[in-house]
Automatic annotation (TrEMBL):
PANTHER family: CONSERVED COMPONENT OF ABC TRANSPORTER FOR NATURAL AMINO ACIDS, CONSERVED COMPONENT OF ABC TRANSPORTER FOR NATURAL AMINO ACIDS-RELATED. Residues 6-253 form the ABC transporter domain. This is ABC transporter ATP-binding protein. PROSITE patterns: ABC_TRANSPORTER_1 (PS00211), ABC_TRANSPORTER_2 (PS50893). The keyword Magnesium does not apply. GO terms for molecular function: ATP binding. Keywords: ATP-binding, Cell membrane, Membrane, Nucleotide-binding, Transport. Coiled coil: none annotated. The keyword Translocase does not apply.
């Protein structure tokens, strides 16, 4: 039987008297798009940052493909095949779009020095070009990222997370601040990337935090609902829509 890509068991993190995450457990299966929703302050980001090695949880265990990654650094996780996007844009405004993609792969590939002295761009150029085409940003590939619209920069930002061909990608509010007319495009892109990565044939799994409910319901295979640091429900979009506790605590607000 195939095990989960990501397994989080009884994760806890407090900030003083605030129990931001109070014993959260869930599993993400290979190829799954797993949504995380919940009201502001329900602990989504704290859970996310714990999984990504950005904060140290007080208790609990995090496994990637069966391997304990609870105390790994973000760099180690990147090398193990975990990618991420942030709520706020992480593009380098003065570099071209293509160079942003090349830089994004560096963490995964080793030190800056080894890359500087590696022949050519070590195959990363092909990967960058494939993503540029897939994300339909060819016409701006040689522009400085800072000159693009916010929506285009968001696309570059998401593409950067895929440069290292990750098995698992955590996306923190991919639609935040994006013009509603672009939201459908981001959803289609993520579905495409989930099915077949640009140069590989392996499906990748995503965990997506997002407040845009239509986007989450359309994109995700399963959704976890967090309220006050705990799991209120996990289920398919239809199950979540029909869950009375979720409606009362969240969707009904
Ligand atoms: N660095 C911190 N120091 C103190 N309290 C924090 C810190 N980070 C988060 N918290 C608190 O922990 C709780 C959970 O916050 P968290 O940001 O994880 O929620 P969230 O669900 O991601 O919220 P949002 O949807 O607004 O991003 C909140 O009460 C928040 O105020």
């Amino acid at each position: 039987m195939i095990g989960p890509v990501l397994k989080v068991t009884d994760l806890k993190k407090a900030y003083g008297a605030i129990q931001a995450v109070g014993g959260v457990s869930f599993e993400v299966m290979p190829g799954e798009i797993f949504g995380v929703i919940g009201p502001n302050g329900s602990g989504k980001t704290t859970m996310f940052n714990s999984v990504l090695g950005q904060i140290t949880p007080d208790a609990g265990r995090i496994e990637l493909n069966g391997q304990d990654i609870t105390h790994k650094s973000p760099q180690q996780l990147n090398q193990l095949g975990v990618g991420r996007t942030f709520q706020t844009l992480q593009v380098f405004g003065k570099m071209t779009v293509r160079d942003n993609l090349l830089v994004a792969a560096q963490e995964h590939q080793g030190s800056m020095w080894s890359r500087l002295f590696a022949p050519g761009d070590s195959g990363l150029g092909d990967r960058a070009d494939a993503l540029i085409d897939q994300f339909r940003i060819r016409h701006v590939a040689h522009k400085k990222a800072g000159e693009l619209s916010y929506g285009q920069q968001k696309l570059v930002d998401i593409a950067m997370a895929f440069m290292s061909e990750p098995d698992l990608v955590l996306l923190d509010e991919p639609c935040a601040g994006v013009n509603p007319s672009l939201v459908g495009g981001i959803s289609s892109l993520l579905k495409q990337l989930n099915q077949t990565r640009a140069s590989g044939k392996k499906a990748s799994s995503f965990v997506v935090i997002e407040h845009n409910m239509d986007f989450v319901m359309d994109l995700c295979h399963r959704i976890l609902v967090m309220v006050e640091g705990k799991v209120l429900a996990v289920g398919t979009p239809d199950e979540i829509r029909a869950n009375k506790a979720v409606l009362d605590a969240y969707l009904g607000n």
